Amino acid sequence: ESAAEELRVLCIIQDTTNSKTVNERLTLNLPASTPLKRLFEDVASKVGYMNGTFDLVWGNGEDVTDTTPIDQNSDKTILDAGFEPGKKNFLHLTDKDGEQPHIMPEPGTTDDSAQDRFIGPLPRECSVGCTNDYVSQSYSYSSVLSKSETGYVGLVNQAMTCYLNSLLQTLFMTPEFRNALYKWEFEESEEDPVTSIPYQLQRLFVLLQTSKKRAI
């Protein structure tokens, strides 16, 4: 009888990590006594992500200004955490620490199934200066899924820097230029690393090539 009389909390979750899912909504009608841990488990099960690889933040509900991720490890119930019974509680599913959520592997698949998938610029044959182009077959399954579907790393817009980001990505995707830059050696005794444009560009290219984040 007490279970039947318990307050229910309606949660509407929007997955903002992917352009294909941003217009979809997941609706959960949960007992008010549901622990936060169980909320994350239910969301992970419904959307097919590995639990612990995504964050939930308050969405566009009325009077919601806190964008701090909800604490998954808290012992609070959803009622104690500020969810309101009888109302729509809007949540956004977001990247965790800048990395895209990991998709739950399908039954019967192993990590080896993705070992041969190449990430990064493809080597160009019969081109001068491309003999040392970067090729790696050692990426793990999780690192494949933490990037975008293309396997490339983006650049965060620093407020109207889209034109510069496009130029940097174009230079990075030019193997002759990228390899020449990698061969250049920085002499710290002669120049300040903070003000050295070739050094900072070299660091940026390494991050574009090796980072597990969607954008840097």
Automatic annotation (TrEMBL):
Record-linked InterPro entries: Papain-like_cys_pep_sf, Peptidase_C19, Peptidase_C19_UCH, USP, USP_CS
Organism phylogeny: Eukaryota, Metazoa, Chordata, Craniata, Vertebrata
Entry superkingdom: Eukaryota
Protein known as: UBP47 hydrolase
Tagged with keyword Hydrolase: yes
GO molecular function, one term: cysteine-type deubiquitinase activity
Entry keyword annotation includes Hydrolase: yes
A GO CC term assigned to this protein in UniProt: cytosol
Residue ranges annotated for the USP domain, each copy included: 153-216
Biological process, per Gene Ontology: protein deubiquitination
Keyword terms of this UniProt record: Hydrolase
Signal sequence region: none
Organism, scientific name: Syrrhaptes paradoxus (Pallas's sandgrouse)
